[in-house]
Write a structure and sequence with these properties.
With about 190 residues, the chain is mainly alpha-helical. Helices cover about 55% and strands about 0% of the residues. The protein has a domain of about 100 residues.
């Protein structure tokens, strides 16, 4: 297998993987909108994905009786699997070429990819533990006060400050006008 042929196969694999996963996600999204598109959105409570859709085994098991969420998750799983399949294909290509250096490097990359997919959030924490609250926080208000209001100001701390705002803007406008008046351009008719 030549390098050009391997590049063509990898390019086709990547394009096909992205297009198939996009089509699956789109189909699941259309199905979900057809089912629940008319109901009003409720943002008071955070609802994560059901437990069976949080892992590969549960997702594949839920495809026996699929729902829109399972189809969307399957499309996302296909999208994640596309670069992994690309690395596996590159590994096979390097092995067929008997290039031991690139086989070793590709095996390391594949091991890192599989490790990161198997333990996405570290060994001690489950993937569904996001730390998100189930209810939104009430709005937060802040206020500021001048240091002079506390009457305990350290020496050298400015209590009253004045923004240069308008004076700086006026000076910039004036300099721009002077510069433009010094420019000359010739306009010629043909």
């Amino acid at each position: 297998m030549t390098d050009e042929r391997l590049e063509q196969i990898v390019g086709t694999l990547l394009r096909s993987g992205v297009l198939i996963s996009a089509a699956v996600v789109l189909a699941g999204g259309v199905w979900w909108l057809a089912q629940a598109g008319g109901s009003p959105a409720v943002y008071q409570h955070f609802h994560g994905e059901p437990r069976e859709l949080r892992g590969i085994a549960g997702l594949l098991g839920s495809l026996a009786h699929p729902g829109p969420a399972a189809v969307i998750q399957l499309g996302l799983l296909l999208l994640i699997a596309t670069p992994v399949a690309r690395v596996i294909l590159a590994l096979v290509g390097f092995a067929l070429e008997r290039d031991r250096t690139y086989v070793a490097i590709t095996l390391i990359v594949l091991a890192v990819l599989l490790y990161s997919l198997a333990l996405p959030f570290g060994a001690g924490q489950s993937p569904q533990d996001t730390g998100l609250r189930s209810t939104p926080m009430p709005s937060i208000s802040t206020s500021t006060a001048s240091p002079g209001a506390s009457r305990r100001v350290a020496p050298g701390v400015p209590v009253k400050t004045r923004s240069p705002g308008i004076s700086v803007t006026q000076r910039l406008i004036q300099l721009t006008m002077v510069a433009q008046s010094k420019m000359k351009s010739a306009v010629r008719s043909f």
